[in-house]
Amino acid sequence: MKRNRQTLAIGVLVGLVIWGGCAAADDASPAMNVEVVATRSHDPRAFTQGLEIDGDVLYEGTGLSGASSVRATNRFTGEQLARVDLPAPYFGEGLTLAGDKLWQLTWQDHTAFARDPNTLAEIGRASYAGEGWGLCTRAGRLVMSDGTDTLTFRDPVTFAPTGSIRLTSHQNARLNELDCAEDGSVYANDWPSDNILRIDPDSGQVLAQINAAGLLPRPLIPNGEDTLNGIAQIPGTDRFLLAGKNWPTTFEVRFVPA
């Protein structure tokens, strides 16, 4: 019996060592930095929660109760094409274009708004449990974050949940704004840090960790939030648009090896 206990203890110890080694390997995702290619002016009153680019149009969702909005602008000229403000107490969050709908999340209001992508007029609503943070569209389904290390998949028409996956590493991450990139991966702001995680949404593996610190001197607002938030791939390129809450500037960047 004593020998069996010793054997069991050794087996457990070996298992812990192997598990720890695998976890360390998972956490050792490639490190990357940002290379700034261009900058654009940005409304410093916009509490940016989500970005999406469709052709010449840049969609932006902003937050704060009583100050939330969704905006469509010409991404080259900055001309505002449409804007809708959310009534209080709605607190706007991430957004994404899915077919003929532009979905917009709210933070703790358990409501997603479906909008006409041209006028931004509301064309429907859906309810969901938990918090809404980030949203993007990949392979015919929505990918949603809720401030944890788990991504939830949803039907793009009904908004019903269809599955979920948890990160295999970085399990203290608080996934915020999302971008479903053309290579099939999901890029996520890790709130409240300046890190962006590149994620395989099929496996939950973190493929890279991107350090986006130093884009702007901070704090921008005394006792206010000015975190990095907002990421959208520029279609057909290897470049991304990055924004932040109340930032006066957006940044067109490439992700390069550290």
How would you characterize the overall build of this protein?
The protein is mainly beta and about 260 residues long. The protein has one domain (about 45-255): 7 Propeller (Methylamine Dehydrogenase, Chain H). The protein is about 10% helix and about 50% strand. It contains one helix and 20 strands. The chain has one helix at about 1-25; strands at about 30-40, 50-55, 55-60, 70-75, 80-85, 90-100, 100-105, 110-115, 120-125, 135-140, 140-145, 150-155, 160-165, 175-180, 185-190, 195-200, 205-210, 230-235, 240-245, 250-255. The relative contact order is 0.18.
Layout: helices, strands, pairs:
Elements: H1 2-27, E1 31-41, E2 48-54, E3 57-62, E4 69-74, E5 80-85, E6 92-98, E7 101-106, E8 111-115, E9 122-127, E10 135-138, E11 141-145, E12 150-154, E13 161-166, E14 175-180, E15 186-190, E16 195-199, E17 206-211, E18 228-233, E19 239-244, E20 249-257
Parallel strand pairs: 1-17
Antiparallel strand pairs: 1-20, 2-3, 3-4, 4-5, 6-7, 7-8, 8-9, 10-11, 11-12, 12-13, 14-15, 15-16, 16-17, 18-19, 19-20
